[in-house]
C-alpha cells in the first residue's frame, strides 16, 4: 500500500471513534430525548443526527447515501424523524450533544491550545477534501464551522469520515456488491460476527439470499465463510476505499497528519475510556484485512 492510502486508513482509526461518540454518548441521547425522539433504540436519533446535513431527506435518498441499511428499516424512521424535529433543530442539538460529551470527557482540558491546533489541522484537511459524488461529505462541509475549537474539530472529523464513507460506497459498487451483499461479504471475512449486523435491518431470508448470490460468484463457501476469491475482493474494496480517501491526507502531508494524531490522543483515549462504544464494531476497525 502506498504512503497516502495507508495514511488515510491510519487516520480513519483516529477519527472514527471520536466522530462515533455522537451515536452512543449519554449526553447525545439526552439531547435527542429533549427533541422528542424515542431513545429506547439508538436508531431514531442516529438517522436524525447523520441525515440532518442533507435537509429533510426522504427514504430513498437516505438509503442511497447509507447503502448498507435495509430500505424497509430506513422507511420505519424516515421521513418520520422530521415530524419530530426539523433538520436545523437537529443540527443545533448535535453540536450541543458533542459539546456536552466532550466537556464530560475532557473537562477543562478542552481549553488547551492543543485542541485548537488539532482543530486547525483537521479543518484544513476537511476543506481540501474533494466532494464530487460524495453527498454526505459535501452536506457536512456546507455547514458553518463552529466557533469553539473542539466542535470545529468534531465537525471536521465528521466531514472526513463521511468523505471516506462516500468513497467506500463507490468501492462497493465497483466490486458489484449490493447493499446486503456488502454486509454479508464483510461478515464472511471475519470483520464482525454476522449477528452484529442485525441492526442494519435485513431479515434472515434477505441475508440468506445475499449469501447465495455471493456463493454463486464463488465468493463464500457453503458455511458463508469467504473463499480466497472473496478475501481478494474485500481486500480490493478496502484498497480502493483507502485510495479514494487519500486526498485530504495528501493535502495535509504526513508530518502534519502525524501531529494531528498526537494532538488527538487525549480525546481518542477519553472516548475509549468512557466505555460508550460497542466492544465489537460493524466497521471492522482493527480486524479488516489491510493490503500491503
Summary keywords:
292 residues, mainly alpha, globular
Short structural summary:
The protein has 292 residues and is an all-alpha fold. Helices cover 65% and strands 0% of the residues.
Tell me the number of strands. 0
Large-scale geometry = globular
How much helix is in the residues?
55-70%
The largest sheet, given as strand count, sense and whether it forms a barrel, is: none
Distance between the termini: 5 Å
Strand content: under 5%
The averaged pLDDT comes out at 94
Structural class from helices and strands?
A: mainly alpha
The number of distinct structural domains comes to: 1
Instruction: Please work out how many helical segments DSSP would assign.
Output: 15
Q: Can you characterise this structure?
A:
By secondary structure, the protein is mainly α. It has one domain. Helices cover 65% and strands 0% of the residues. It has 15 helices and no strands. The N and C termini lie close together (5 Å).
Helices and strands, with pairings:
Blueprint lengths: L2 H18 L5 H10 L7 H9 L7 H8 L4 H7 L3 H4 L2 H20 L6 H15 L7 H7 L7 H26 L4 H10 L15 H13 L11 H17 L2 H6 L1 H21 L18
Helix pairs in contact: 1-10, 1-13, 1-15, 2-7, 4-5, 8-10, 8-15, 9-10, 10-13, 11-12
Amino acid at each position: 500500500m502506498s504512503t497516502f492510502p495507508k495514511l488515510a486508513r491510519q487516520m480513519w482509526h483516529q477519527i472514527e471513534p471520536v466522530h462515533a461518540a455522537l451515536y452512543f454518548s449519554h449526553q447525545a441521547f439526552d439531547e435527542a430525548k429533549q427533541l422528542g425522539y424515542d431513545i429506547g433504540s439508538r436508531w431514531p436519533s442516529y438517522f436524525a443526527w447523520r441525515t440532518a446535513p442533507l435537509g429533510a431527506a426522504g427514504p430513498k435518498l437516505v438509503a442511497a447515501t447509507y447503502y448498507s441499511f435495509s430500505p424497509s428499516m430506513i422507511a420505519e424512521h424516515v421521513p418520520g424523524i422530521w415530524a419530530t424535529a426539523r433538520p436545523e433543530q437537529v443540527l443545533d442539538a448535535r453540536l450541543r450533544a458533542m459539546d456536552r460529551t466532550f466537556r464530560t470527557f475532557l473537562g477543562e482540558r478542552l481549553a488547551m491550545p492543543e485542541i485548537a491546533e488539532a482543530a486547525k489541522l483537521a479543518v484544513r484537511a476537511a476543506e481540501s477534501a474533494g466532494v464530487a459524488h460524495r453527498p454526505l461529505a459535501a452536506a457536512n462541509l456546507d455547514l458553518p464551522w463552529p466557533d469553539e475549537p473542539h466542535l470545529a474539530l468534531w465537525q471536521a472529523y465528521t466531514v472526513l469520515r463521511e468523505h471516506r464513507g462516500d468513497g467506500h460506497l463507490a468501492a462497493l459498487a465497483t466490486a458489484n456488491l449490493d447493499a446486503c451483499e456488502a454486509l454479508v461479504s464483510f461478515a464472511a471475512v471475519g470483520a464482525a460476527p454476522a449477528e452484529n449486523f442485525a441492526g442494519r435491518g435485513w431479515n434472515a431470508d434477505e441475508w440468506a439470499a445475499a449469501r447465495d448470490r455471493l456463493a454463486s460468484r464463488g465468493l463464500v463457501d457453503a458455511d458463508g465463510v469467504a473463499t480466497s476469491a472473496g478475501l481478494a475482493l474485500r481486500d480490493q474494496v478496502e484498497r480502493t476505499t483507502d485510495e479514494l480517501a487519500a486526498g485530504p491526507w495528501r493535502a495535509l502531508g504526513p508530518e502534519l497528519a502525524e501531529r494531528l494524531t498526537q494532538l488527538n490522543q487525549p480525546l481518542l483515549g477519553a472516548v475509549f475510556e468512557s466505555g460508550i462504544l460497542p466492544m465489537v464494531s460493524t466497521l471492522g476497525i482493527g480486524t479488516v484485512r489491510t493490503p500491503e
